[in-house]
Amino acid sequence: MISVDQALQQILSGLPQTCVEQVTLSNALGRVLAEGVTARLTQPSSAVSAMDGYAVKSSDVEACPAALTVIGESAAGGCFDGDLQPGQAVRIFTGAPVPRGADAIVIQENTTRDGDTVTVLESATLGRFIRPTGLDFNQGEVLIKAGRRLSPRDLGLAAAANVPWLKVRRKPRIAIIATGNEVVMPGDPLGDNQIISSNSIMLAAYVTSLGGEALDLGIARDDADSLKRLLRSAEQADMVVTIGGASVGDYDLVNSVLGSEGVDLGFYKVAMRPGKPLIFGQLHGTPVLGLPGNPVSVGVTSAVFLKPALQTLLGMKIEASDDTAILGADLDANDQRQDYLRASLTDGIATPFSKQDSAMLARFADADCLILRAPLAPAAKSGDLVRIVKL
């Protein structure tokens, strides 16, 4: 039995990044950049007004009120083609180019207008309400770095930089195989002693939420041939994840079938709770992760191992897995296994649920976080600082 850190190191070591593909901005939400986004223009390309008002020389409005002659206007999408002379002003609108010779904007509210004469009631200092050239970004500037998962704001920035295509990592294909004679899909007839395959649904959704492509291959029955057929259909996957059948019972065939298929098992037990019966190996170069069958075990081991594996495949920096919170209830001393306790999180206080059975999916769905307890951790009191993994 190995530690969580040792297991994670084995899983992540040697995982290759997926290949690069090009997508349009409209198809890039949630994708991970393979190449940084570089601005193809300067924004703004020239000094522009930040307000509606009048472009002036600041020296003309040091003493107010000051009467100036209006000689034209500058609107967004157009410009005033001329030079501003002392004693003159140009009507200007937000986003419009600042006329040559002007060095300040007087906002409309601080003026009165009578024909071609505008009276400035409040002075404007040099550069007031002017957005200088390149205030936002300059041509050639790297705006978004590789390895970032693209948000709506990122796509807006790329569009503003006149970048219509982006180089992204192909979504990792994660093949999911549930196991067991007792498992049926949601909506199928439910026989005596059978259960719904909630794990595969939860896991596929989790893979999708992390930026991967889930390939649900169905349910392998408790015989070697059924599992072998599904494993062989996963040849195009970047990783195969099995659910259940990873323990030591007579019908837990995953371990033996993987061995017969040529999988080099790196480990098959991890010192953690829940999730001890965990398998990892390579099937002809494809990583295979065998998760336990209990729903909470699937959820916890996915958060601890599958999430960083997907981030590695996508070329992302692995996010810190834990944070801290104030403990909301006393805890006994821990044994030799790293523990992940389902808990609520309110105003920075993490309170563990009274029942922690790994089959209780409803409680896992209610949890805000996992309280992480190191092996052999001493008893903890309410009010102590504890490590948590946010869900």
Structure description:
The longest helix is centred in the C-terminal third of the chain and has 19 residues. The protein starts with a helix and ends with a strand. 18% of the residues lie in helices and 30% in strands. It has a six-stranded mixed sheet with strand order 7-4-6-5-9-8, with no helix packed on it. The protein is elongated. It is an alpha/beta fold and 391 residues long. Helix 1 packs across helix 6 and helix 3 packs parallel to helix 6. The mean pLDDT is 92. The protein has four domains: 155 residues, MoaB/Mog-like domain (Molybdenum Cofactor Biosythetic Enzyme, Chain A), CATH 3.40.980; 52 residues, Molybdopterin biosynthesis moea protein, domain 2, CATH 3.90.105; 84 residues, Molybdopterin biosynthesis moea protein, domain 3 (Molybdopterin biosynthesis moeA protein, domain 3, Beta Complex), CATH 2.170.190.11; 68 residues, Beta Barrel (Beta-clip).
The strand line-up of the biggest sheet is 7-4-6-5-9-8
> What amount of the residues lies in strands?
25-35%
Using DSSP, what is the number of strands? 26
Summarize the main sheet: 6 strands, mixed
Domain count, please report it. Answer: 4
Secondary structure layout plus pairing:
Blueprint: H1 4-12, E1 20-24, E2 37-38, E3 48-49, E4 53-56, E5 66-74, E6 88-92, E7 104-107, E8 111-114, E9 117-120, E10 130-131, E11 142-144, H2 152-160, E12 165-169, E13 173-179, E14 183-184, E15 195-196, H3 198-209, E16 213-220, H4 224-232, E17 239-243, H5 254-260, E18 264-267, E19 272-273, E20 279-283, E21 286-291, H6 295-313, E22 323-327, E23 338-346, E24 349-352, H7 361-366, E25 369-373, E26 385-390
Parallel strand pairs: 5-6, 13-16, 13-17, 14-15, 17-21, 19-23, 22-24
Antiparallel strand pairs: 1-12, 2-11, 3-10, 4-6, 4-7, 5-9, 8-9, 18-20, 20-21, 22-26, 23-24, 23-25, 25-26
